[in-house]
Amino acid sequence: QVQLVESGGGLVQPGGSLRLSCAASGSMFRIYTMDWYRQAPGKQRELVASITSGGSTNYKDSVKGRFAISRDNAKNTVYLQMNSLKPDDTAVYYCHYQLLGSDYWGQGTQVTVSS
After folding, report:
1. Burial of 104 by CB count in 10 Å (0-12 exposed, 13-18 middle, 19+ buried)?
2. 81-104 per-position pLDDT tens digit
3. Rounded to whole angstroms, how far apart are CA atoms 81 and 92?
4. CB 30, CB 24: distance < 8 Å
5. Is the pLDDT of residue 54 over 70?
6. Cα–Cα distances in Å, from 26 out to 3, 68, 70, 76, 81?
7. Residue 4 exposed, middle or buried by CB count within 10 Å (0-12, 13-18, 19+)
8. Rounded to whole angstroms, how far apart are CA atoms 92 and 109?
9. Is 43 in a helix, a strand, or coil?
10. 15, 93, 58, 43: CA torsion to nearest 10
């Protein structure tokens, strides 16, 4: 069973950048599609970006052109580069994968975009 640990969140001004990291344990990381979700106060958790084992990506429309998901299978790590951040990006960001119908989540990292 893969364990996920996020890092890289923090407080940033509008227009700024952050890079989130998700470090995974286990030898089978390379075969999983990995996702970044986020959840803002009072709102449902939403899918932000996904990357397949082959490197194909998909993004929520509101972050296209600003965010980039990537992975380094040799390091068992997935990243989310976040540029041109807006206050609406404020949320707890979670790393995620699914295996045999079960969902696995990291503990989350807080991103706050505010002046």
Report:
1. middle
2. 999 999 999 999 999 999 888 999
3. 15
4. no
5. yes
6. 8, 24, 18, 8, 24
7. buried
8. 5
9. coil
10. -90
Element housing 65 (H / E): none
pLDDT of residue 88: 97
> What's the rounded mean pLDDT across residues 33-59?
97
* Residue corresponding to tokens 């951040």: 85
Amino acid at 11: L
Q: Are 96 and 34 in contact (CB under 8 A)?
A: yes
Q: Rounded to an integer, what distance in angstroms lies between the CA atom of residue 111 and that of residue 80?
A: 12
Q: Closest by alpha carbon to 80, among 109, 102, 54, 39? A: 109
Task: From residue 83, give the alpha-carbon distance in Å to each of 18, 50, 54, 55, 60.
Answer: 7, 17, 24, 20, 14
Q: How far is CA 32 from CA 23, 26, 45, 58, in A?
A: 13, 11, 20, 15
